Amino acid sequence: MRNYLSLLFLAGLAFLLFVIAGQFEFGMAPMLVGSAINQASPEQVGAANIVTSVVLGYRAIDTLGELAILFAAATAGGLVLGHAGTSARHDPDAGFILRAAADVLFPLLLMVGLFIIVHGHLTPGGGFQGGVILAAAFFLPLLARPGTRFPHGSFAIVEGIAGAAFIVTGLLALLTGGEFLQPLLGQGEMGGLLSAGTLPLLYIAVGLKVGTELAGLMAHIAEYEALDP
Amino acid sequence: MESLANWIVLLATVIMLVGAVAVLVLQNYLAAVAATSVVSLGAAVIFVVLRAPDVALTEAAVGAGLSGVIMALCLRRLGLHRIEGTAASAPQAGADTDGDS
Predict the structure, then answer these.
(1) CA nearest to A46, candidates A121, A124, A127, A128
(2) Contact (CB<8Å) B69/A139
(3) What is the extent of the structural domain holding A158?
């Protein structure tokens, strides 16, 4: 069985190498949406990163759906895993190298994550990517010092406020006569930090929500008492 | 430039395939989780070459980082967490993971 599997993988490898070495021409798909958005986006949304203008402008309701799915998953995880009791057995502190590295990396990861979130409308990246980096930053101290309590309560509050802010921003657009989640506040100068209307604010909300949610989920899994090996 | 990109993609593909095979054949579960992260990192490199930096960033953060951490945490939860040696020493952990038996 294993021999056949190896043979299959070898065939796959050979096929992929053949495809890459063959340098075939890419076909042209009959897609007109991409070029149309490329044309219209700088004037309609004003974000230097066109991907962001799609994610938070043209398809913002999809992003809301993604947030809802992530929220449901994290909530279900938290429900199943529950809180660890105060007397729960936890791992001993990590070694010196991991503890020192966690202290050095925490501010660095925090800064990189916030930078990616805040510059989501200018450079590649945005709320989801930066949020995951934020979650890693907040999870790192827990890995180095398993005894410390993870502040689940305050994280849940930040998560709730961020999620509500996203929807309220969308409703405000609705109140001012636009569509749900339509960018407000004027476009500003394209390429500036304060440009593209409410898109940066939406991405900050997304980043905070994703970051706190995933950090809480990882903390839940890590805190849960491991079965006796 | 074009040929350089081709070589990078070729290298990344080979690394990804080696990582994918390693996931199947490695006896240590933690090492297999690390190998899945290697596959995601290779995919991130290919996304950069294909000029999709947004997707590459997501792949590197979520695919290589977050999912690896969550799988490693779940291994510990299941009691299959071994830094050294093979997982075969763990209770009820079969040595064959590819459905041989």
Answers:
(1) A121
(2) yes
(3) 44-223
